[in-house]
Amino acid sequence: MHIERYDQDGRTIYTLQGRFDAHQVPMLKSSLELGSNTVLDMAGVNFVDSSGLALLVNLYKRAREEGRTLTIRNLQDPVRLILEITGLLGILPIEA
């Protein structure tokens, strides 16, 4: 997994590339810091497993509890399908 971080228009944006799976979750947990308005750009992610889904849910819950926003954008079709099947597509804030 490759992660880049930059700030744009008051948002902290992380671009993610690679697999979002159990092997990558520990590294992602330590690398992602929630700003007041955080965006996960997942255009480079073509696979997500249950560990990756759990991390997305936990980040979203933490952001809400802390009064922050977390948005996910640029989902590839396989990842969007997994979120749809699990019911998370209607729960997590997805930006087209």
Automatic annotation (TrEMBL):
Residues 1-96 form the STAS domain. GO terms for molecular function: anti-sigma factor antagonist activity. CDD domains: STAS_anti-anti-sigma_factors. Pfam families: STAS (PF01740). PROSITE patterns: STAS. NCBIfam families: ant_ant_sig. Belongs to the anti-sigma-factor antagonist family. This is Anti-sigma factor antagonist. It comes from Meiothermus ruber. The lineage of its organism: Bacteria, Thermotogati, Deinococcota, Deinococci, Thermales.
